[in-house]
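Lecture 7 notes: from sequence to structure.

We start with a single chain of 113 residues. Read the sequence below before looking at the structure.
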Amino acid sequence: MFLVHARLKSSGTRFPPDFADLVARCAQPDEGLRHSVFHPDAPTGPVLGLFLSGPSLPLAESAARAVVERALDHHDSLSGVILVSCEAVLPTPYFEWLLARPDDGGRLMPPAD
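Now the structure, written as tokens:
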């Protein structure tokens, strides 16, 4: 399972309350979309999270992009919405936290003897 973030930009278009479902209904069965969730007020702008199953991250990112682009193309109410990016996000805060730990300096396992 892969989580892909679709970052969106809107030129005044209001997102419908069922935006995540609207996009999900545009998915083809072979694209592997399992769940979608919309965060209209994310700090970096509107973000649609798409959970996809598939054999690789590049294929999941490609499928997510296709689903979102299809939804934007087929719904007139979304004519002012632009897809800015569609990619998996590296969870950097977690790794920064690991590296900042004073006790083991980011090691996940004890050193070999």
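Residues 57-74 form the longest helix (18 residues). Keep this in mind for problem set 3.
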